[in-house]
Please model this.
Amino acid sequence: MNLENTNKYKILAASIIFDAVGYASFIIPGIGELIDVVWAPASAFLMTKLYKGNAGKVGAAVSFIEEVMPGLDVIPTFTLMWLYTYVFKTQTEPEETIIDVS
Model:
């Protein structure tokens, strides 16, 4: 296993842990909503640190909204972002098409 794969799986482990923290607040009725007030901005910050660029920013916004809205804590936002980043996102950029008009 090369260094890139090791880092990828460390990010997956962190993502699962952060999703578990968000889900744990859902388990505690009443108090969970208070925990979400603190966890929502923290999760958005952590999302931007784990996933760089525009995707990380969008993920942070989604994570914040998911944590602030009651009943949505069960969505594994960090893990879904990992899947998007390392499984579904294409690694190659589309080739530039040059049109010859002469």
Q: What stands out?
A: The chain has a mean pLDDT of 82. The helical segments are 3-27, 31-50, 53-68, 77-88. The radius of gyration is 17 Å. The chain has one domain: 3-83.
